Amino acid sequence: MTGAAVVGLDIGGTKTVAALVGPDGTVLDRRRAPTPASSGPEAVLDTAARLATDLLPAAGAGPVGVGTAGTVDPATGAIRYATDSLPGWAGTPVADALARRLGRPVRVGNDVHAAALGECWAGAGRGSAHVLLVAVGTGLGGALVRDGRIDTGARGAAGAVAHLPAPGAERMRCGCGRYGHLEAIASGTGLAAAYAARTGARIEGREVAERAAAGEEAARTVLDRAGAALGGALAGLVALLDPTVVLVAGGAAEAMLPTTLAAYAAELPPAWAEVPLRAAALGGDAVAVGAARMAMAAQA
What we know:
Elements lengths: L5 E6 L3 E7 L5 E8 L6 H15 L8 E5 L2 E2 L6 E3 L12 H9 L3 E5 H12 L7 E7 L3 E7 L2 E2 L37 H12 L5 H9 L3 H25 L3 E5 L1 H17 L9 E3 L6 H14 L1
Parallel strand pairs: 1-4, 4-7, 8-11, 11-12
Antiparallel strand pairs: 1-2, 2-3, 5-6, 8-9, 9-10
């Protein structure tokens, strides 16, 4: 594997980040800009290419890596499915379009998959052969790393933990449009919806977590219910997938963590009692670092 630095891109619904990543996973430099999602895919790609171009003079001559929202076709680097966070993103040939703009090969993967790869390389999953990562943000995403490689599944969508049935969410609507799924209760959107149903006040999930930390009873109840649902689901997934470690990432995950840990410990079958649940370590750099790792692997 090359010893040169590599550029990794994180293309999300609200922000795009480019990072220059060294051969040990250290972020050497970064660029960031709002994602012009409402202006369409071409504007999103132009922004990503501009940020990457700023860093390319300090990188090697190899590929650029990209972690992006949406389901990515692992064979072509095109987007098979995406939500309205990036309007028109479904069908976008991200790998080919950025390769034309940057003049070099581009490797593309789902953003949560990339985050899991980054954590396994340079974060809280370092040294673990099999890692399950769940990212709790506006929505809910997941990824499974086996022997240092992402398990993408048959369609590039493996790890979609958002759509697991969850006790307590039966009357709550998931982002997919159906009811009763884990994302409907254990995500930023789920926190906001549950708080609105309980109090009538419409605030973002982040503020629900802040109010819970400040001691507000209604917010604490909502947060604890979400954390318990997440912890129980993760315990079940451990029995199914048999990972070495489970990582939780994302802003909402930190607020839920105490309740999540308690529910996880209570529900974990004895045969997997030694599988730890930990907070992820790379924060906002995880996707870009994992994307850079994908690019480095392409040169091996």
